[in-house]
Recover the amino acids of this structure.
């Protein structure tokens, strides 16, 4: 078996995000629809038998290694094993915008769990990896399981779904959003009626929305301005608590035409929605 493996760590969109209640512990009850994008960070794991420990070759500015979800995921996995594990060096090629609501950190953690389970030959089940991931963040399990899903609870109770695999234009307004601040805002909608969950989600009806959007737009005018611009070309929506917004298009060329006309000062990308995570597609190829 090779001592090195390179795996994608994909972005996700919340195609809708409804807040249905607030729990006594302060966390919010959600209903959301996760879909992956064929737009990914890349993680390379290389075993270093002569060197102990877990090492991140590419530190993220402003994020101490001990706080990085990649290192935390690798250590959590190592703690589950009674084996004398070889060291590992992890290289990260970052593409997903940070702080955008695209799940980059959670995805990195999931790819680390899945990748090192494979490389260290631990033989842990998907359920065990998802449970380990949940301790790192509510969005980690959907990336571990690798299928588009409706999420409930804090996002960790998953029901597989198959939304249309359309093309998306994703824009990142020039601001950083504090998720905790959004969820603590008085004006946040917290009583959206729960929907009945079906095995497959059909369409994207107008009654679905992101309950965080109004509060985010009020606090962050850059998001409001970008949403207003993108909404000229069809429904546009916030993902997670933002700052990224997205519009859905039937073809890549339709999305790219709008991308070419975007206002200056906004970054982003065009990507396809996929119901099977690129991480899991790659793992199948390796088997």
């Amino acid at each position: 078996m090779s001592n090195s493996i390179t795996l994608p760590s994909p972005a996700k969109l919340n195609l809708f995000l409804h807040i249905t209640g607030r729990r006594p512990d302060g966390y919010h009850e959600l209903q959301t629809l996760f879909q992956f994008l064929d737009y990914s960070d890349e993680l390379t794991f290389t075993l270093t038998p002569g060197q102990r420990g877990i090492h991140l070759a590419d530190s993220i500015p402003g994020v101490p290694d001990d706080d990085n979800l990649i290192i935390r995921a690798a250590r959590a996995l190592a703690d589950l094993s009674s084996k004398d594990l070889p060291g590992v060096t992890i290289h990260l090629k970052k593409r997903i915008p940070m702080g955008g609501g695209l799940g980059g950190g959670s995805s990195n953690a999931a790819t680390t769990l899945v990748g090192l389970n494979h490389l260290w030959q631990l033989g842990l089940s998907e359920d065990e990896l998802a449970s380990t991931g949940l301790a790192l963040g509510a969005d980690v399990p959907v990336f571990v399981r690798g299928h588009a899903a409706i999420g409930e609870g804090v996002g960790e109770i998953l029901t597989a779904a198959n939304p249309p695999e359309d093309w998306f234009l994703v824009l990142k307004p020039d601001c950083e959003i504090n998720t905790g601040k959004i969820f603590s805002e008085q004006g946040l909608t917290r009583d959206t009626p729960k929907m009945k969950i079906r095995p497959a989600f059909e369409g994207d009806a107008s009654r679905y929305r992101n309950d965080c959007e109004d509060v985010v737009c009020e606090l962050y005018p850059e998001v409001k301005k970008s949403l207003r611009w993108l909404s000229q070309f069809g429904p546009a929506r916030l993902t997670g608590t933002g700052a990224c917004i997205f519009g859905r298009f039937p073809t890549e060329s339709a999305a790219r035409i709008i991308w070419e006309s975007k206002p200056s000062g906004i970054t982003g990308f065009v990507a396809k929605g996929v119901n099977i995570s690129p991480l899991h597609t790659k793992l199948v190829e390796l088997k």
Remarks:
- The domain at 1-287 is CATH 3.30.230.10 (Ribosomal Protein S5; domain 2).
- The chain has a mean pLDDT of 92.
- The first strand starts at residue 4 and ends at 22.
- The chain has one domain: 1-287.
